[in-house]
Design brief:
Blueprint (H helix, E strand, L loop, with lengths): L2 E5 L7 H11 L4 E3 L12 H11 L3 H10 L6 E5 L3 H10 L5 E5 L19 E6 L10 H11 L4 E5 L16 H19 L1
């Protein structure tokens, strides 16, 4: 069993995030899904970012608090906005077993969270025409990680959906999500061994 700290996207801790976590739990892993938005969920990405900005919520501080309550030898994961604290913690908190980044990836090195520890593999997922993952350059950061960090993997799925693995959202892609779940489960088995 592997412990996973899984951060939600900018729409909040939606039923689809719970469903994704439950799928991983069903394979024998412990999955913790902290609510960084105090129970608030949003219909659009713009609404979610506006709430984050106007509320003054420090998602990094809340993510750090969630991580501090857990052992250090865990896997971090996150969807889009949630990929940022997951990646930061995987890169900076000693003992991380790995990180799963869904539809988000920050630059490594001076532009990001510092150097990537060679002992922390990443598994990164996104759609090949996602305006954010592709258009904002996250895929380039993902490719750099895969090229330099042993055991890391990048998977691109056909389509332009963002947050495609959240079953509670209109852009949900069931077929792609099945593949994501299978790949994440295999990754958790590998890094948890």
């Amino acid at each position: 069993m592997t412990t996973v700290l899984l951060f939600h996207h900018v729409l909040g801790l939606t039923p689809g995030i719970h469903a994704f976590a439950d799928r991983l739990r069903a394979t024998g892993h412990e999955v913790i899904t902290p609510d960084l938005f105090d129970g608030r969920t949003f219909a659009t990405i713009d609404e979610g970012f506006a709430y984050r900005r106007e509320s003054g919520i420090d998602t990094d501080e809340r993510a750090d608090a969630a991580a501090a309550a857990l052992p250090s030898d865990i896997v971090y994961g996150g969807f889009s906005l949630g990929a940022m604290p997951a990646q930061r913690l995987a890169q900076t908190r000693a003992g991380a077993r790995g990180v799963v980044l869904l539809e988000g990836c920050a630059p490594v090195g001076d532009d990001g969270f510092g150097p990537w520890p060679s002992s922390v593999p990443a598994q990164i997922h996104g759609m090949d025409a996602d305006e954010f993952f592709i258009g904002d350059g996250d895929v380039d950061s993902a490719r750099e990680i895969v090229a330099t960090v042993p055991g890391s993997e990048l998977y691109l799925y056909p389509g332009d959906g963002h947050l495609f693995s959240d079953s509670s959202l209109p852009g949900y892609d069931a077929e792609a999500t099945e593949t994501v779940i299978a790949r994440v489960t295999a990754f958790l088995e590998r890094v948890g061994a």
